[in-house]
Structure formats: structure tokens, C-alpha cells
């Protein structure tokens, strides 16, 4: 699941602890320096600080990024941060990489925001740097965008050969090729089933070129959830959410999972049948904890 990160810290910690107690597998955090969709002056705490906090406040649930903006951190330093957190957390880290998309954030913080193909190439090279530091005693790398020389990263991550590395995004020519060549998992935003099926076919084609079995890559869907016990409660919650997001109620199912537990289970089954292995779920309901419990008891249990 994916908690809100701009609220009261104690409430976010409590939600993550409740997710662990309920049986959720991983808590994921987005990587932003200021709110990307709403008032940029609003509160937002930094991603890696959250990961460390939640890892320290839990014992089983995994912690992950979905996705890191590659341009925010030099990959050698990022590898050191990731290795350290994997050790501190007892081997619970998931690394979700992205090229970064918010030009406003980059420029506001004095970070270069290059053309999309360049940012994706930088991300691929960053993953290569990180893997070297995770697996070699002494790492040296000289690429187009990054270089390290005689770098040591000790202790190594507990997970071998390294924490799972995901790549997020659905670009067919560049991003999915990076997934096929470098990633342990692919994260896709919410898409209609026919479009997702096409993306999976494109990924499989890139895997064939790379000499890789597409089944070796985990596949996750990042989709918000609006769930309610019955149709009447769902209708009220959907109307309130549509008003907050300034969209028509009828558009919500195009953007997220919307339904009663039975309806949500049917929707998830369609994605699982396509090959989706993991779901990253921001909840958009009246009370996150109630919705999380309803989902785990009435939806996730159908897939146990």
C-alpha cells in the first residue's frame, strides 16, 4: 500500500503499522520534494527519511520507493543509502527507479531537467552503477553520465545479489527496454486492460531481444482504490472524491479501482490473469484504515 506523505507524521506511522498488522506486504513511498499535483507550498516529507522511519517502526513489512526521481541523487550515493537501509531494515528494501517527470520540482531545487530520452538513459546508467556497488568489493565505472572510481560500499545489502530493483513507467521504446535489460520488476500506472495487455506484449518483445524470460520480471500495477461495503456508501464516497479531484464520477473507474469488495476482486482478477503479480494501492476512501481492512479481508483474501 502507499500512504499519504503530507499528513501528520504520527498518523502516517500508525497507518503503516496497521498495514503491517493487517498483512500487507510492502509500504511504498513516492519521491517528491514538494507536492506535484496540489499547492506546492503544502507539507511533504522526504521519501528516504520516511523509509528509514517506517523501517524502524515496523518489523516485517517491506519498505519501498515507487518511484525515485533519478535526478535527485547521484547513483553512487543512492547505492550507499540503499545498502545501509537494507541492512538496518533486516533486508526489507525494494528500490523503485524512475526517470523523474516534474520539471517544476527539478528547477525549483536547482536540479537539471534534461530531455526525456536523456533522463531515461541516465536512469539506466544509474542502475548499472548501483549494481556494481552492491556486488563488487571495489567498484569503478565510467559512463556517459556517471563515473565512480575505487568506490567501496560496505556493508553490502543483506538481500543478494541486491534489493529488488523496479523501474516505473510505461514508455514503450525506452522505458520498457530498460526494464527488460536492467530491472527485477516493472511498475505500471493504472491502465485499461487492453492497453496494459499491449504494454506487456511490448515488454515481452524487449525481453526477447535482451535474451530474457519475461516471466522473470515481476509486474506491479499502481492504482488507487476506492472501496466501500455497499453500493450506497460507495456512491457517496465516489461523489465526494470526484468533487475533490474535479472530475466526473463516471471517470473514476478509468483512473482507479472503484467498487464494493466483490467488484474490486473481479477487477483485480482481470489484472492477475494478465500477469500482474503485485499491486501498489493508495487508498482514496473515507477512512484509510477502514478501507485497508475491508480490502485485505474481502478482496486480498480471495487471492490467498
Written account of the structure:
The chain is of the alpha/beta class. The protein has two domains: 9-168, Luciferase-like domain (TIM Barrel, Alpha-Beta Barrel); 227-304, no CATH class. The protein is 44% helix and 16% strand. Strands 1, 2, 3, 4, 7, 8, 9 and 12 form an eight-stranded parallel β-sheet that branches. The radius of gyration is 19 Å and the shape is globular.
Describe the SSE topology.
Blueprint: H1 9-22, E1 26-29, H2 47-57, E2 62-65, E3 68-69, H3 75-88, E4 93-98, H4 103-108, H5 116-135, E5 139-142, E6 147-151, E7 165-168, H6 175-182, E8 185-189, H7 193-210, E9 218-222, E10 224-227, H8 231-245, H9 252-255, E11 256-259, H10 261-274, E12 278-280, H11 288-298
Parallel strand pairs: 1-2, 2-4, 3-4, 4-7, 7-8, 8-9, 9-12, 10-11
Antiparallel strand pairs: 5-6
Helix pairs in contact: 1-11, 3-5, 6-7
Quick structural gist:
The protein is α/β, with parallel strands linked by helices and 304 residues long. The chain has helices at 9-22, 47-57, 75-88, 103-108, 116-135, 175-182, 193-210, 231-245, 252-255, 261-274, 288-298, and strands at 26-29, 62-65, 68-69, 93-98, 139-142, 147-151, 165-168, 185-189, 218-222, 224-227, 256-259, 278-280. Strand 5 and strand 6 (147-151) form a beta hairpin.
Choose one word for the global shape. globular
Domain count? 2
CATH class of the largest domain: Alpha Beta
Q: What is the H-and-E element order?
A: HEHEEHEHHEEEHEHEEHHEHEH
Number of helices: 11
Helix content: 40-55%
The CATH superfamily of the largest domain appears as: Luciferase-like domain
Rounded to an integer, what's the Rg over CA atoms? 19 Å
Summed over residues and divided by their number, the pLDDT gives a mean of 95
Note poorly predicted spans: none
Structural class estimated from helices and strands: alpha/beta
Give the termini separation. 17 Å
Strand content: 15-25%
Main beta-sheet strand count, sense and barrel state: 8 strands, parallel
Amino acid at each position: 500500500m502507499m500512504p499519504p506523505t503530507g499528513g501528520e507524521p504520527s498518523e502516517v506511522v500508525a497507518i503503516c503499522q496497521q498495514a503491517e498488522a493487517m498483512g500487507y506486504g510492502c509500504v511504498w513511498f513516492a519521491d517528491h520534494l514538494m507536492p506535484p499535483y496540489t499547492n506546492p507550498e503544502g507539507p511533504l516529507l522526504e521519501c528516504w527519511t520516511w523509509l528509514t522511519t517506517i523501517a524502524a517502526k515496523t518489523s516485517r513489512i517491506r519498505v519501498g520507493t515507487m518511484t525515485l526521481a533519478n535526478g535527485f541523487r547521484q547513483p553512487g550515493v543512492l547505492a550507499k543509502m540503499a545498502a545501509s537501509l537494507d541492512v538496518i531494515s533486516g533486508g526489507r528494501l525494494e528500490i523503485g527507479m524512475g526517470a523523474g517527470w516534474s520539471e517544476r520540482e527539478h528547477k525549483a531545487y536547482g536540479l537539471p531537467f534534461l530531455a526525456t530520452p536523456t533522463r531515461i538513459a541516465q536512469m539506466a546508467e544509474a542502475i548499472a552503477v548501483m549494481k556494481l556497488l552492491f556486488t563488487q568489493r571495489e567498484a569503478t565505472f565510467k559512463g556517459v553520465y556517471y563515473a565512480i572510481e575505487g568506490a567501496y560500499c560496505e556493508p553490502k545489502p543483506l538481500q543478494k545479489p541486491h534489493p529488488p530493483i523496479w523501474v516505473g513507467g510505461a514508455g514503450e521504446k525506452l522505458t520498457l527496454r530498460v526494464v527488460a535489460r536492467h530491472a527485477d520488476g516493472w511498475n505500471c500506472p493504472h491502465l485499461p486492460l487492453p492497453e496494459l495487455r499491449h504494454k506487456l506484449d511490448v515488454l515481452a518483445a524487449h525481453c526477447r531481444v535482451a535474451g530474457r524470460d519475461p516471466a522473470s520480471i515481476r509486474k506491479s500495477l499502481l492504482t488507487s482504490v476506492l472501496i466501500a461495503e455497499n453500493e450506497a456508501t460507495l456512491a457517496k464516497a465516489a461523489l465526494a472524491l470526484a468533487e475533490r479531484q474535479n472530475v466526473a464520477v463516471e471517470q473514476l473507474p478509468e483512473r482507479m479501482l472503484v467498487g464494493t469488495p466483490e467488484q474490486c476482486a473481479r477487477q483485480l482478477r482481470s489484472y492477475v490473469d494478465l500477469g500482474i503479480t503485485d499491486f501498489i494501492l493508495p487508498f482514496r476512501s473515507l477512512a484509510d484504515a477502514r478501507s485497508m481492512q475491508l480490502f485485505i479481508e474481502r478482496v486480498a483474501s480471495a487471492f490467498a
